[in-house]
Amino acid sequence: MTKKIGFLGLGHMGAPMAANLVEAGYDVLAFDPVPAAQEQARADGATVVATAAEAAVGRDVVITMLPNGKLVLDVYAELLPAAAPGTLFIDSSTIDVADAKAAAALAVSAGHRPLDAPVSGGVAGATAGTLTFMVGGAEDDFADAAEILNVLGGKVVHCGGAGVGQAAKICNNMLLGISMIGLSEALVLGERLGLSHQSFFDVVSTASGQSWALTSYCPVPGPVPASPANNDYQPGFATALMSKDLTLAANALRANGIDGRLGELAAAIYQQFNQTDTGKDFSAIITAIRDRSE
Ligand code: NAD
């Protein structure tokens, strides 16, 4: 068993992930600049260090769970020279495919073994250790990371080479954003036409318009009792994060010359909603569609 882990980024996702690694018997050196995050990590049994670089010293594996690609690249500039050659670097942040490839190239040229391993499953999945990991990188490095990723996740998929884990993440979330908007427009149209939410659900959940957004995450209260709509749209998956992921997807569409009009539009719709939204779940987009309708 690989024992020594460095963990950077102890936020909503990183804190419970680091705690699960400690719980599973790993020796975790943790770093986050925020004092409250440091305190929580200490309480969870990690050893908190004073700088990012210290979290990489003498580690077999270094995991990052950071807000964006620029930070990942900045932090890698500190971590890579501090780590022993051959250290496995696992970045689980959701970042641009180009940034993921750049981070991987830097790690390789410093003599390390990089994987991009973004997740889905949210804070609940991070806490329960049931995240889905989408992994990009070399086959051997993936095999060496599998034990740790299986502590943190319920499903671990090797998607391809460097950056391809991030590609899977943005493709999935682009589709989810588009389907939530489409579903919400259909629900609001149904409201106008006298179709109750329950009747809509009863028909569409087993018809050809069925989607995960409807059957697991229904954006109106009632049909799916656990969905955020039943709890005044408390996240869940915050609008700000969906907006970020759709922006990454739209950038990738453009960078690769794809005619991705729905992806572009979904990014624009969520960017606009994110400017007015006050921390609501992304399924609250239905309230904006209703408000904008005559
Ligand atoms: P968060 O903002 O709660 O946590 C990020 C943490 O990184 C913060 O505690 C911050 O202080 C820390 N940080 C900033 N600079 C640092 C540095 N130089 N060194 C070490 N730590 C530093 O974000 P989160 O919700 O935990 O999300 C983390 C990543 O996971 C993001 O890329 C996000 O898109 C992705 N993600 C989040 C969710 C979710 O539901 N929250 C789901 C899937 C993926």
From TrEMBL:
Q: A GO biological process this protein is involved in?
A: L-valine catabolic process
Q: Which domain of life is it from?
A: Bacteria
Q: Which PROSITE patterns match?
A: 3_HYDROXYISOBUT_DH (PS00895)
Q: Is the keyword NAD assigned to this protein?
A: yes
Point out the coiled-coil segments of this chain: none
> What keywords would UniProt list here?
Branched-chain amino acid catabolism, NAD, Oxidoreductase
All copies of domain 6-phosphogluconate dehydrogenase NADP-binding, residue ranges? 4-160
Q: Which SUPFAM superfamilies has this protein been placed in? A: 6-phosphogluconate dehydrogenase C-terminal domain-like (SSF48179), NAD(P)-binding Rossmann-fold domains (SSF51735)
Pathway per its UniProt entry is: Amino-acid degradation; L-valine degradation
Q: GO molecular-function annotation terms?
A: 3-hydroxyisobutyrate dehydrogenase activity; NAD binding; NADP binding
The answer to whether keyword Signal applies is no
Q: Which residues form the 3-hydroxyisobutyrate dehydrogenase-like NAD-binding domain?
A: 163-288
What EC number is given for this enzyme?
1.1.1.31
InterPro entries, per database record: 3-OH-isobutyrate_DH-rel_CS, 6-PGluconate_DH-like_C_sf, 6PGD_dom2, 6PGDH_NADP-bd, HIBADH, HIBADH-like_NADP-bd, HIBADH-related, NAD(P)-bd_dom_sf
Reaction(s) this enzyme catalyzes, per UniProt: 3-hydroxy-2-methylpropanoate + NAD(+) = 2-methyl-3-oxopropanoate + NADH + H(+)
Pfam families per the UniProt record, alphabetical: NAD_binding_11 (PF14833), NAD_binding_2 (PF03446)
Q: Where is the active site?
A: K169
Q: Top enzyme class of this protein?
A: oxidoreductase
Record-linked PANTHER family: 3-HYDROXYISOBUTYRATE DEHYDROGENASE, MITOCHONDRIAL, 3-HYDROXYISOBUTYRATE DEHYDROGENASE-RELATED
Similarity annotation: Belongs to the HIBADH-related family.
Q: What is this protein called?
A: 3-hydroxyisobutyrate dehydrogenase
Q: Which organism is it from?
A: Nocardia mangyaensis
